[in-house]
């Protein structure tokens, strides 16, 4: 495939201008136009919509589809350049969901970064469903996810069970020793995050799913930022709650009828190179070391 043409296309896509793309690539505008034309001929379709009398550059529908492939090509090219620079070094690309990367896996990542001989590491954060797709495309070597999915080329195994707890703003009336009945919690004071089907089923037994007086959030970080008075509450995994409590702003409370524990999974592709197997053996070694502290 025309590497120079893809670089020109990506530059145009990023700056929305042939002239600025030429400046970024340190070539003439005519060269950028020629490279783009050669790429379009190779692809058999128009990628960039050219309008006379306007400086605005837009992608055609064909160009929008190609942009996804071009971005993956850019990442692969970058990985190749890194491999050439570092030489015969074990490489490992790890994907994880936001809450796992932030609140569970940082000790594992720290241990991997300190490993001798040095590993070439890359980390990615995506939703669990996206991570399975990324793993199937072999863009990552291992994924840490919050849901199990049965796929023919993917091996999935549990690596950590995270109990669910109540997190409250630290105030005299909120004592860490308290065990609360879920019925005593007002829905209007809730910061609600859906932790999965089992959690949602438990939640619906206590609160009317049609009652939308709560505040919905899609990341645990938002709970940390927005939970700011004594009446507010949220249910989060214990690993997340422990990280919150370190700030001194929150307390952990237990529920008399808690939701099911969250099971976290490690997923890998069944077809692995010898080098990837070696890198994963190192990862598994450090995983065993962090499992006990996580479970306490």
Automatic annotation (TrEMBL):
Residues 1-60 form the HTH lysR-type domain. InterPro entries: LysR_HTH_N (IPR000847), LysR_subst-bd (IPR005119), WH-like_DNA-bd_sf (IPR036388), WH_DNA-bd_sf (IPR036390). Keywords: DNA-binding, Transcription, Transcription regulation. GO terms for molecular function: DNA-binding transcription factor activity; transcription cis-regulatory region binding. The keyword Isomerase does not apply. Belongs to the LysR transcriptional regulatory family. This is DNA-binding transcriptional regulator, LysR family. It comes from Megasphaera paucivorans.
